[in-house]
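Worked example 2:
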Amino acid sequence: MTPPVKDWTLGNILATSSAYWQGCTLQAGVRLQLFTALEGGNDKTVDELSGELDVDRRGLEHLCNALTAMGLLCRSGAGYRNSEAASTFLCKNSPTYKGQIILHHHNLVDAWAQLHTAVKEGCPVQERFTSEEEDRENFLLGMFNLAMDNAPRLVPQIDLTGRSHLLDLGGGPGTYAIHFCQANSSLAATIFDRSTTEPFARRIVDQFELGDRIDFISGDFTRDSIGGGPYDVAWLSHILHSNGPEECQQLIHKTVAAMAPGGLILIQDFILENSKYAPLFPALFSLNMLVNNPEGRCYSEEEIFAMLKNAGVSEISRHPFHGPNDAGIISGVVAEKG
C-alpha cells in the first residue's frame, strides 16, 4: 500500500533538512553531561555550569538556550534546571537513563553526513572520528537501555511454556535472555556473541543473579557453528538487518541446525511492508545500514517468511506484538529432521 502523500511545503522541507540540528544539540548536552550536572533540584547559572563542566561560557549559554527552546531545560531568572523528561532519561543517576543510545546516535553522525557518497559508491564510507572501543560501549549500553524498556512488554506476550533452553543469538548483554528466564522458571539460556561482548554480558547477567541459568558462548555467528544445543527456542533480535540476504539465509539455516525438532524460532527486527517503502523507520534504517555496513538492510515480511521456509521451518506467522520504531516479530516451528 502506498503511504499517504505528505503536504510538503517549503517550511516542511527546511525543517527536515535542519532536523539534525536538534539531534546534535541533544547529543552535545548528553556528551557534556549537562543534564547530570543540573540534577539535584537547584537552578544553576551558566557561570556555575561552565566552571563545573570546564567548558566555554559563551558556547554553553547558547547550548542551554537551545535546549530550553526544545523544552529539555527550564529557565528561571538567570538559572537553568532540567525538565521532567531530562531528569528521567538524560541524567546518569536516573534508573531510566538513556544516554548511551543517544551517544550511539552521535557516533553515527559522521557516517550519515557522508550518505551521498555511500549511495554513489554503494558501500560505507570508512572515515570515523570516534574510537572502536567507544562505539562498542555506547552501542552495547544503548541496546541494553532500549531492551530494558521493550522486554518487559514483549516477554509476557511470548508463550514459552514447556521449553527448557533458549538461544539468544547475537544477544549482546543478554537483556532478552534475562527477561525470558525471569518469566519462565524452568528456562535456561545461552547467549552467543563475540568475545568482546562477553565481559559486559556476564556482568549484566550477574546483576540479575541469573549466572546459574544463563551461560555465554563466544563466537562469530557469520563464520562459526552454534554450539551448546540442541535448543528448543531461538531468539534472533535485530541481527538480520546487519547482514545481506545470503548471510541471513545461512544464519537461519545454522540456527535451525542447532535446534531440536519442534523448536520455536523467533525473529525480531524492523520489518518492512512487502512494498519496502513503508513504514518510514525501517526504510530509513536501511540507509543507516548502507552508511555503516557492507550489505545489511531491513527486510520485508515476505522475505523473512521465505528465509524461514527455505530452512525447513513451518507454521510461520507474524506475531501481533508491535514495538518501538516498527519492530515486529515473526515466528515458526522447526520441522522434524530427516
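The mean pLDDT is 92. The chain has 14 helices and ten strands.
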